[in-house]
């Protein structure tokens, strides 16, 4: 083994200029994997956090399939209050309608909630870009999504008319402009729960109840417990709510993997070609080594070990570049009008995964030229044939 290490190290030193470019290719491939995967994790985690912070509880209660609304809201709220482990809950009403401002109008989604209860479950009402949030007893105010405000050219303090889906109109004052980074930024209006119940004749009813638990990991147990206590079958855990969100990121993850594969292929080709050319130029030396007693397996290990040397150096440099690049972009994310900002998130497993995958690809790329070297015919090699 000592002779294998000695020859592999000596050969690498002699060809360091050529091997330098191989190391750079490996380093770039490794850094590329870390940064791209970090970006995907950052976008996914950020979107899920926003979704959980603004749109979902740990357990969400829906009307049963045959019903449009949850009936008997008051009784169900009392039962939730009496359950150990339930920290808070927030009933919501969702409806459609149109918003009229001066001579313009837009189709809107109406989200009605109780600010005092909502603030204990989500941070939705804190996502105000300008103006003020919706107060608990504010029966005349509304929050407007920022895209809708841009389309209608409105600002906090203006008045607009909401025509509810049953045809009833009512004038509201715009308290603030909302920016969540989610789909609700498109055309959502938020008003007080009691206002919507009155306008839509939905007293003691709700479209959904968000429930916050003391321990979110017990959501599965509480799902069954709440179902039994409230007599409602359609209840979802937060994990089920984000399944649809995660599925939408599969395409982006596949694109990211494709780009990673291109980078790895580039590094693998560089390693394979350089080792192949190096072996062609050293066939006579390989023949002499085999003539003085070096076995085929030892020759194979010489070039595999050489690839491991190159891979290890390139991976270490790539890890450093990937870490530095990810941390920099994490601190300086790209601004985005919809999501607010786009940036990666660094996790230690990003380095482990990138290093392992790159090293395996490097070894596989070196396998063919190394095998070719081990099968070199002694006589032909020494005579230069």
Helix and strand layout, with pairings?
Blueprint: H1 2-14, H2 16-55, E1 59-61, H3 73-81, E2 86-101, E3 104-113, H4 115-121, E4 128-131, E5 141-145, H5 146-152, E6 159-164, E7 169-178, E8 188-192, H6 193-200, E9 208-213, H7 219-230, E10 235-237, H8 238-248, H9 250-281, H10 283-291, H11 296-331, E11 334-336, E12 340-342, H12 348-374, H13 378-382
Parallel strand pairs: 3-8, 5-7
Antiparallel strand pairs: 1-9, 1-10, 2-3, 2-6, 2-9, 4-7, 5-8, 6-7, 11-12
Helix pairs in contact: 1-11, 2-8, 2-9, 2-11, 2-12, 9-12, 11-12
What does this structure look like?
The chain has 385 residues and is an alpha+beta fold. The protein has two domains: 2-51 and 248-382, no CATH class; 63-233, no CATH class. It has helices at 2-14, 16-55, 73-81, 115-121, 146-152, 193-200, 219-230, 238-248, 250-281, 283-291, 296-331, 348-374, 378-382; strands at 59-61, 86-101, 104-113, 128-131, 141-145, 159-164, 169-178, 188-192, 208-213, 235-237, 334-336, 340-342. Strands 2-3-8-5-7-6 form a six-stranded mixed beta barrel, surrounded by four helices. Helix 2 (16-55) packs across helix 11 (296-331), helix 2 packs antiparallel against helix 12 (348-374) and helix 11 (296-331) packs antiparallel against helix 12 (348-374). The longest helix has 40 residues, at 16-55. The two termini are 29 Å apart.
């Amino acid at each position: 083994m000592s002779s294998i290490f000695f020859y592999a190290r000596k050969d690498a030193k002699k060809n360091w200029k050529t091997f330098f470019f191989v190391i750079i290719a490996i380093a770039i491939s490794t850094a590329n994997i870390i940064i791209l995967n970090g970006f995907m994790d950052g976008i996914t985690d950020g979107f899920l956090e926003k979704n959980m912070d603004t749109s979902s509880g740990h357990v969400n209660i829906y009307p049963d399939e045959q019903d449009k609304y949850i009936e008997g809201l008051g009784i169900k709220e009392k039962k939730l209050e009496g359950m150990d482990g339930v920290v808070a809950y927030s009933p919501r009403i969702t409806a459609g309608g149109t918003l009229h401002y001066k001579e313009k109008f837009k189709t809107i989604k109406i989200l009605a909630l109780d600010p005092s209860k909502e603030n204990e479950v989500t941070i939705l009402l804190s996502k105000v870009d300008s103006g003020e949030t919706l107060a608990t007893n504010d029966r005349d105010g509304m929050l407007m999504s920022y895209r809708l405000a841009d389309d209608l050219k409105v600002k906090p303090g203006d008045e607009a008319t909401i025509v509810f889906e049953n045809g009833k109109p009512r004038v509201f004052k715009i308290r603030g402009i909302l920016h969540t980074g989610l789909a609700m930024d498109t055309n959502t209006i938020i008003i007080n729960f009691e206002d919507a119940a009155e306008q839509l004749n939905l007293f003691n009813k709700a479209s959904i109840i968000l429930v916050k638990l003391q321990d979110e990991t017990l959501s599965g147990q509480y799902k069954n417990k709440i179902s039994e206590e409230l007599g409602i079958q359609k209840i979802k855990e937060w994990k089920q709510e984000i399944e649809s969100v995660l599925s939408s990121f599969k395409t982006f993850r596949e694109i990211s993997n494709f780009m990673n594969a291109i980078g790895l292929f580039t590094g693998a080709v560089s390693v394979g070609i350089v080792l192949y050319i190096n072996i062609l130029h050293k066939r006579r030396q390989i023949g002499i080594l085999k003539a003085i007693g070096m076995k085929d397996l030892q020759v194979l290990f010489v070039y595999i070990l050489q690839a491991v040397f190159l891979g290890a150096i390139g991976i270490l440099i790539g890890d450093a570049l990937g870490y530095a690049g990810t941390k920099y972009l994490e601190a300086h994310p790209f601004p985005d009008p919809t999501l607010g900002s786009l940036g990666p998130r660094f996790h230690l497993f990003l380095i482990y995964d990138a290093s392992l995958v790159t090293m395996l690809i490097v070894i596989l790329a070196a396998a063919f030229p190394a095998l070719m070297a081990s099968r070199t015919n002694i006589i032909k090699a020494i005579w230069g044939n």
